[in-house]
Amino acid sequence: MSRYSADEIKHIRRSCDLTQREFADVFGISVKTLEAWEQGINTPGSAAARMLDLLRYDYGFAATIARQPLKEYDGAMVKAVRSNLGLPRELFALAIGVSETACGSWEQNRSRPNGPASRLLWLLEQEPDMLGLLMEKVW
After folding, report:
1. What fold characterizes domain 6-66?
2. What tens digit of pLDDT does each residue of 79-99 get?
3. Which terminus has fewer CB within 10 Å in the chain: N or C?
């Protein structure tokens, strides 16, 4: 899993030509959270790091994502995304940067994906080919 420094996060945001508000919207997080990342106070979680991996690959699609409302996923929806991709839970969890346990909790409606994980789920629904890029980072 990639780790991102404050400077790398700022570089990716600026390369995407987005304000902090717009970039925070890409991840479904608050501007305060993004500011903490960019100041090195906190670091992105694993799902957010997976999103940064994708943004680093192609800065262009960040603006499109930022304009989309954050979609909330229930268990059936998470399972449908995973099933449509044809992945067992273990590989699906690796691809989006979460534990298999977290993925199972989502699918059983015991918890819900956070903002970055929801964005990845949405992106994989819209662009299943992004799975290849995510899996490239896993192996």
Report:
1. 434 Repressor (Amino-terminal Domain) (1.10.260)
2. 999 999 999 999 999 999 999
3. C
The residues near 88 (Cβ < 8 Å, ≥ 6 apart) are none
Please write down the HEC assignment for all residues of 87-111. CCHHHHHHHHCCCHHHHHHHHCCCC
Q: Is 31 helix (H, G, I), strand (E, B) or coil?
A: helix
Burial of 10 (0-12, 13-18, 19+ CB in 10 A): middle
State the amino acid at position 35 in one-letter form: E
Contacts 24+ apart (CB under 8 A), 38-42: 38/6, 38/9, 38/10, 38/13, 39/6, 40/5, 40/6
Q: What is the reported pTM?
A: 0.90
Fold identical between 6-66 and 75-138?
Answer: yes
Domain ranges of the chain: 6-66, 75-138
Q: What pLDDT band is residue 139 in, cutting at 50, 70 and 90?
A: very low
> Greater confidence, 60 or 92?
92
Tokens encoding 55: 């943004």
